[in-house]
Specification:
The structure holds two protein chains of two kinds.
Chain A (H helix, E strand, L loop, with lengths): L21 E10 L16 E5 L4 H5 L1 E7 L1 H18 L25 H6 L1 E3 L3 E3 L3 E2 L3 E6 H4 E7 L18 E7 L4 E9 L3 H13 L13 E11 L6 H12 L9 H13 L7 E4 L2 H15 L4 H10 L6 H4 L1 H6 L11
Antiparallel strand pairs in A: 1-10, 1-11, 2-3, 3-7, 4-5, 6-10, 7-10, 8-9, 11-12
Chain B lengths: L7 E9 L8 E3 L2 E3 L6 H7 L8 E3 L8 H5 L7 E2 L3 E2 L5 E7 L8 E3 L2 E3 L5 H5 L15 E7 L4 E7 L7 E4 L4 E23 L3 E2 L8 E8 L6 E14 L2 E4 L13
Classes of the chains: A alpha+beta, B mainly beta.
Protein name (chain A): CRISPR-associated protein Csc2
InterPro entries (chain A): CRISPR-assoc_prot_Cas7/Csc2
Pfam families (chain A): Csc2
Chain lengths: 342, 252
């Protein structure tokens, strides 16, 4: 089991204070259908940004507009994926406030389930948990102009025309931008102080989440692939630098759609140098990475999943007593109490 | 005030690899970031002190800056980061959604209890339709990617290459530009170009004129013209005796 190779940067159990253990996942995200990432509402252009094309030579001077997949558009569907299974295996807790089952954005998280412990929550006044999963804006390799298309949307009436029975014309006509299928985003995901089972849970969420962005019941199909796993005591380069360095290696001319194998080879060539970065202690080899992914799939498999999720849930048990026995909690409860002036 | 606690200081550049957001000011549903990065935030971000992953009970009532900074204050200090050139901002809209299949945008809240819908149609207000006190939609003014900030780090410390800042843990690159010895200048009238934290100023100095950026947790002072002792770091001048929460005892 190659997860043991990461043992130096894995936590033995959840602890409330950070301890400088970083695990970095290099993720390649590829659109498999039309996809929509925008931050300014419907009808607005895709989320994009002017950045240096590359880090060396001419590429450094060239400014191109790249598509951006923002942090929150990555992490929201991924944590929801994990929550689906927590719900199915009845591992979501009810919150103390109104006794409702843990649910996102209702101002009453249960504060006790795997999702709450890992991805965090902020409940008004009642406390908060920081996320231990740090995402980054992911960038497309090719310029936005190469990989964005236009679609005209018209919603016709049930009689099959743009006019209803009274002869009124439909106003449902619109043009909207979309990201073409086969567009690659390179991404760096940083995990802090996670345990082995938490790592399996997070990797599972990333690998199995298949839809991102707006209108994800119709479009937004995306495939994620993990290209590298590092253990370190500091953060590794950003996804922007990764995209730029990969762009340099790929060389010109580049055209949509990119050859995915060439792209993977180029990215792996870039991250191979990260081994020498300050603070890096572990890099998984190809074989170890494959083993890790098999390990994740095994734990998430039909046969193991119940076991795996319950084991993970169980690992937070020592931290749950605080909430259930309110009075005692103040007296002993937490391992690392923060003293408050009286 | 004759001894200097810090032998040297590093001039550090912070390069924003991602848009950075702090809730410096909140106007209706728009959340503004000021063009400055507070030194307390930087101290946590650089890993000099840690804050817990989870806050519970009384610990949510007030921050623990004093307790956190006291052990390191003897050999570490950092100034609030001031922008290099003009700061550029971007606006972004955000909206939060539930993980339920059915949901309704009600009074600043995403309601998910579909069984409450008939009640609501009768004119009653089920609890899931009442407003909650945290934003579900709004606009963010963020410091744009590629902005640069400068700050001075006192003391001889290794700094990480990348740090995370703000509400959304945005990645920021840390470049050490230069290192200078810290020298003490005698009492006199000086002008400081750097941003300073009002809570960290020494008690003895006399502030003659300054501009104030009013943000939590402590106001930031710029263009300070003061009388008192000063530290010189290369060409730069700051009041001598800067210290985390150095002004605290005056208001207790």
């Amino acid at each position: 089991m190659s997860i043991s190779k990461l043992s130096t940067v894995l936590a033995a159990s959840y602890e409330n204070f950070p301890k400088g253990r970083f695990i970095t996942l290099v993720v390649l995200r590829t659109t498999h259908s039309e996809t929509i990432f925008r931050t300014e509402g419907s009808g607005e252009p895709m989320c994009s940004e002017f950045v240096q094309a590359g880090l060396e030579g001419e590429n450094q001077k060239t400014i191109i507009q790249r598509l951006v997949m923002t942090k929150r558009k990555q992490v929201a569907p991924e944590r929801r994926y994990g929550r689906e299974h927590l719900r199915a295996h009845e591992l979501l807790y009810t919150n103390i406030k109104d006794g409702s089952l843990c649910s996102l954005n209702t101002n009453a998280p249960c504060e006790m389930c795997v999702d709450c412990f890992l991805y965090g929550f902020a409940a008004g006044g009642g406390g908060a948990q920081k996320s231990r999963i740090w995402t980054e804006d992911a960038f497309s390799i090719l310029p936005a102009s190469d990989v964005v298309g236009d679609r005209t949307i018209n919603a016709i009436y049930e009689n099959g025309t743009m006019r209803d029975e009274k002869g009124n014309a439909s106003t449902a006509l619109n043009t909207s931008e979309y990201i073409k299928p086969g567009v690659h985003f390179l991404d760096v995901v940083t995990l802090k102080d996670v345990t082995a089972d938490e790592l399996r849970y997070i990797i599972g969420n990333i690998l199995f989440t298949s839809r991102y962005g707006a209108v994800s019941s119709r479009v937004g199909r995306m495939e994620n692939e993990i290209l590298g796993v590092f253990g370190s005591i500091t953060e590794l380069p950003s996804s922007l630098e990764l995209v730029q360095a990969t762009y340099d290696v790929l060389g010109k001319p580049l055209e949509h759609p990119l050859n995915i194998n060439q792209l993977i080879t180029a990215s792996k060539q870039v991250i191979a140098n990260w081994k020498n970065k300050r603070g890096v202690s572990v890099q998984l080899s190809e074989e170890e990475l494959a083993n890790l992914l098999t390990d994740v799939e095994t734990n998430w498999s039909e046969a193991e999943r119940d076991n795996f999720l319950k084991r993970l849930t169980q690992s937070y048990e020592p931290f749950r007593h605080v909430a259930t026995e309110k009075k005692k909690a103040k007296a002993k409860g937490k391992n690392t109490p923060v003293e408050v002036e009286s | 005030m004759s001894t200097i606690p810090f032998q040297q200081a590093k001039l550090v550049e912070l390069y924003c690899l991602e848009p950075v957001f702090f809730a410096s000011r909140e106007l209706s549903d728009t959340y503004y970031t000021e063009g400055v990065i507070g030194n307390y935030a930087l101290t946590y971000a650089l890993g000099r002190v840690n804050s817990p992953y989870r806050l519970q009970g009384q610990a949510t009532g007030r921050p623990t800056y004093k307790e956190d900074f006291q052990p390191i204050a003897q050999d570490f200090y950092i100034l609030p980061a001031s922008p290099v050139g003009r700061v550029t901002f971007r606006f972004e809209r955000f909206n939060a959604l539930s993980d339920a299949y059915w949901y309704a945008m009600t009074n600043n809240r995403v309601a998910t209890a579909r069984e409450d819908l008939p009640l609501q149609r009768q004119g009653k207000k089920p609890s899931s339709f009442r407003p909650s006190n945290f934003p579900q939609t709004g606009r963010l003014r963020m410091i744009e990617r590629r902005n640069k900030f400068q700050t001075l780090v006192f003391g001889n410390h290794q700094l990480p290459t990348y740090i995370r800042l703000g509400k959304f843990m945005s990645k920021v690159q840390v470049n050490v530009l230069n290192e200078f010895p810290v020298t003490l200048l005698p009492e006199g009238e000086y002008q400081s170009q750097h941003y300073l934290n009002a809570a960290d100023l020494p008690q003895q100095i006399e502030a003659l004129a300054f501009d104030l950026i009013s943000i939590p947790p402590a106001p930031i002072i710029k263009n300070l013209h003061f009388r008192g002792a000063a530290w010189q770091i290369g060409e730069m001048i700051v009041p001598a005796g800067l210290h985390f929460c150095g002004r605290e005892s005056s208001n207790e």
